[in-house]
Amino acid sequence: MVKDRGYLYEIQGLRAVAALMVAVYHIWIQRVSGGVDVFFVVAAFFIVGSLTRRERLSVGDVLDYYGKTLRRVVPGAAMVVSATILVSMWLMPDSMWRNQLKHALASIVFMENWSLALTATDYLQQGSPPSPFQQLWALAVQVQYYFLFPLMLWLSLKLDVHRGRGGHRYTACLLLAVTVVSLAYSVYITEKNQPWAYFDTFARAWEFSLGGLLALYATRITMSVPMAKLLGLVSLVVLLTFALFLDVSTLFPGVMASVPVLAAGGIIIAARNRCDIKLLNNRLFVWFGDISFSFYLWHWPLLSFYRYVTGEFDVGFVAGASILIAAGLLAFLTTWGAESPIRRSTLLSRRRIHAYAACAILMALPAGSLFAWYQDYQARSSEARGELEAFMNAPSAARDEIYPATLIASLDLPESSRDGCHQNQFGTEVLECEYGDPKADRTVVLAGGSHAQHWLAALKASAEKEGFHLITMTKGACMLSFEPHARYTVDASCEAWNRKVVDRLVALKPDLVFTTGTRVEGGEEVVPEGYLEVWRELGKAGVDVLALRDNPWFGFDVPECVDLSDQPSKACSVSRNAVLSDRSPTDGYHLPNVYFADLTDLFCQGQRCSPLRQHVLVYRDDHHITNTFSYMVAGRIARELHDAEMALDGGAGGDMVSAR
């Protein structure tokens, strides 16, 4: 144990525990641990403690604090981001480049938490592989509060002095107000949109403000040494174990985040009362606390790159321990070789402008690496687009390659996503766009969610060839259904949008509505009741429907799998029985105005469903087909349209049994 009690060694040990918790949970348990929340509390404890020790806080003091913070944060961040970029260029699958360029840029400007929030709520990116820059979200949140808290404290201390109150009454009131407002917001936004809330800076503010309140009042909470040790040990046990028993991944950062926050607070209070917890104040953990945040930053890209190389998500004991050791060594080298010299430099601490300049130079390293990566991406993307265009013009002359290339597969979207004709998952306005011949007597409407929308290329090609009028009415994550609370309904706006679409279809009276007719729910392929309700209402208005059996959902990012496999047709195929029912759930149904079409043979041959059809990449993610594939099967879609119209004109809709 270290003897000098002027320094709270338990808090340094707490940092070490938090970093190890995060890494261990990421590597072997795949759960949220609460370790990051500990970092937030401790960071605010030191911010407020450092700045409120001054009788007055000037603007110059705030600027000096920024310089000091940059000298501590930037060296490690610059090293980690630069290395991650360079290794990503070498190891990362082409299919991930476009999105990871965005994450790299967000990391450099300390905004990765917002980049991840947007990714988590972007329907087209949901299910994307984790970013090797993902762990930098926590640093981004800390840096944002390293900037905001000194300004808040400057204002509150100015009021304290101006009003002659003395002490930190205004500071405490401000921190308490932030705690109450942010916690209320955190509970609200976590319930409404947890993937966004997890990375939301404002949903985390209460964790920082509580750490700040501890800095002001922890010294006023006194207890005996045995009681302090009991509090410290109980808090440590709760911190280490609560996430083992509760999977809180979808509950943070609401009320449940108070568990690690309060546990960290308990340890800080216990440390102030000489708790003497040997697990936290021994020399090894105190030393590791100095490199703990660099360790946190390094462990995640190492884990990500291990998974890229091996293709395995699960990490064994030996591999996981190797990642921990490597992260520790890199953290030590980063701290010793970059962070400490910059942080302790007399020249840089003497004048803040020198500190700012040095940190700007350091951040030029990842910025330059990112620019080189972006240039390479642009050149290769341009070449891939040229090859795709040549293939579309002359498929028979295709070389032994994949179209579209995995590098640009995520961008191979329906035209309506590029020209603003596809409603997002939150809007209610019905966006209509027209293709084919607008003066034609025959009108087909493409309506529904993205699984209807991704057939646009095939329908447009058919409209142009056969001379009919095609109108689109599509919306992200919103199928054509009167079932507002279904599991597949992402946002409440879907119900209002569907009502408007059906009203518009009834008024328009097209010859045919093209939409999806099945859905996988709870592992079972079904025809949702909400779909049937819409079809019945359209039937009353004399509107016919072509209901297409949904395509197989692969459950993994197909372009990434293709990138990582020497034999993607075999390695990335899935069993038909695993993704589809033996018989289409539409078999046996009958509605006089509905024709059921099944294109399963385009995706599955025999008992396997393949990611490739000859040279064409079928999927651009785990369940949306590429625009290229849609275009290449236009002939089949045209035949289905013809068969549907023939059958419905003859009064032979699908076979029908009870809808329930």
TrEMBL record:
Q: Which GO terms describe its molecular function?
A: acyltransferase activity, transferring groups other than amino-acyl groups
Residue span(s) of domain Acyltransferase? 9-333
TM segment ranges: 7-28, 34-52, 73-92, 136-157, 169-189, 201-218, 230-246, 252-272, 284-303, 315-333, 353-374
Annotated Gene Ontology cellular components are:
membrane
Please list the GO biological process terms of this entry: lipopolysaccharide biosynthetic process
Task: Give start and end of each SGNH domain.
Answer: 421-638
- Under what name is this protein listed? Acyltransferase
- Which lineage ranks, top first, belong to the organism behind this chain? Bacteria, Pseudomonadati, Pseudomonadota, Gammaproteobacteria, Oceanospirillales
